[in-house]
Specification:
The protein is mainly α. The protein is 73% helix and 0% strand. It is elongated, with a radius of gyration of 30 Å. InterPro entries: CellSynth/LPSAsmb/PSIAsmb, TPR-like_helical_dom_sf.
């Protein structure tokens, strides 16, 4: 009754009391370990489990209790050793223990050892789905894709309705950019009754069609899956993204505005991008304001809001917001730093813009966007010599010269004298 009511503390107390009279009783100790696990007292459970396993080194129940504790603590090396210790005992060749050992090897990414172990199990149990899945993972660890595909091909011949292995292979091929091969698998999965509403298949189909620039097919997939899962917001959001990639930004806006939830950052991000393209600055300012309210620690909506204010000519408000950003000392990403600089340039806050630009150009992997911002800065500052250097740098990078070499060739950083830098930087 206590177990059915999940009164695990009381179960623990009863087991402890019983063990005072029967200190080596296996069933009572197993119940105690289970009660401790349910309360997440894993360290205490491990101590008791290890002692129990030493007392009953050949007992399968003692082994599995110990393995379960090790899994909860993510102590996979100890779990591996426990399995190997048990399997060395005479007459101990339980298939499930062999499976668990293979999984522990995979979790530790012991590639070659994992492959050998699973190959042995596969030879003995070629029709076991769990063995095939474990062997798949081991082959993936060693990048043995040819053998992996052969394994799957053999499996699919006798398991035409398989989902698990087909999903794993489809995702692997998609991630490796073998989109046509992957697409065949995603289409088969989409046709199976058992996976009719599995959203992973929707994402897989869309990943392939979008990567192959087959946007009409991508739109059809979105429409199909919206009918399958009409309340799934993730499908609506990806559908909107496809419409944006097709240049149908107003349709994307209309779709995104049907989403009731305010918890997905992508909704705000995509609406912001759409309003920028549609030149609907009032709506841009409105959506970035709502975005900031929903995600107060997010810098992106603040920067977009400042940009919208500048476009609308609200200079004083933009200056105040920039000052606030500086006071908060955000660690800006590269894309955020670029947007921040563009706002500084529009506000004619040139010294601040200069410090961020030069800080970025000192980076070994600076892109051409920063060079273009330098050109804009030179134009705003009316610095003829800097403008010439910046344009030369832009041309050199456009022609394919490594940015670091181009910067050295122009002598740009040597011309900056004692200029100082502010806190903003690219992370």
């Amino acid at each position: 009754m206590l177990v059915s009511k999940k009164c695990w503390d009381e179960v623990e107390a009863m087991c402890q009391a019983a063990l005072c009279s029967y200190p080596s009783d296996l069933p009572i100790t197993l119940r105690l370990i289970n009660a401790l696990s349910k309360q997440q007292y894993f360290d205490k459970g491990m101590e008791i489990s290890e002692a129990l396993f030493q007392t009953y080194p050949q007992d399968l129940r003692a082994l599995h209790a110990l393995l379960d504790i090790y899994i909860s603590l993510e102590r996979f090396p100890e779990a591996e050793l426990a399995c190997k210790s048990w399997l060395k005992e005479e007459g101990c060749d339980d298939f499930f223990v062999q499976m668990r050992l293979g999984r522990f090897l995979n979790r530790q990414e012991k590639g070659e050892e994992s492959v050998k172990w699973w190959a042995k199990l596969y030879q003995e149990h070629p029709e076991n789905a769990f063995v095939v899945e474990g062997y798949f993972d081991a082959l993936f660890l060693t990048n043995n894709y040819k053998q992996l595909e052969e394994l799957c091909t053999t499996w699919f011949k006798s398991n035409k309705e398989d989902v698990t292995i087909r999903l794993k292979l489809a995702r692997l091929l998609t991630n490796q950019k073998h989109f046509l091969k992957a697409l065949d698998l995603w289409k088969i999965l989409a046709s199976l009754e058992s996976t009719f509403t599995d959203i992973r298949i929707f994402h897989g189909l869309l990943d392939c069609f979008v990567s192959l620039k087959k946007f009409d097919e991508a739109k059809s997939v979105c429409e199909d899956w919206r009918s399958r899962l009409p309340d799934e917001e993730a499908i609506v959001i990806r559908n909107a993204r496809v419409l944006m990639q097709c240049g149908l930004h107003q349709q994307a806006v209309n779709l995104l505005l049907t989403i009731q939830s305010k918890n997905d950052r992508r909704v705000y991000l995509f609406l912001t991008e759409c309003y920028l393209v549609l030149d609907n600055i009032e709506q841009l300012k409105s959506i970035t304001h709502h975005w900031s309210e929903a995600f107060p620690d997010d810098v992106d909506p603040k920067l977009h809001y400042i940009k919208a204010s500048l476009i609308l000519g609200e200079i004083d408000e933009a200056n105040v917001l920039i000052d606030n950003l500086e006071k908060e000392k955000y660690d800006l990403s590269e894309s955020q730093s670029k947007m921040f600089v563009s706002c500084l340039l529009l506000l004619e806050r040139l010294d601040e813009a200069k410090s961020v630009i030069y800080r970025a150009i000192e980076s070994a992997e600076v892109g051409r966007d920063w060079i273009r911002l330098l050109v804009q800065y030179a134009q705003h500052s009316r610095n003829a010599s800097l403008s010439s250097l910046a344009r030369a740098l832009d041309i050199l990078t456009f022609l394919g010269l490594d940015t670091t070499k181009a910067v050295k060739a122009t002598g740009l950083l040597e011309t900056r004298g004692g200029w100082t830098f502010k806190l903003y930087h690219c992370s």
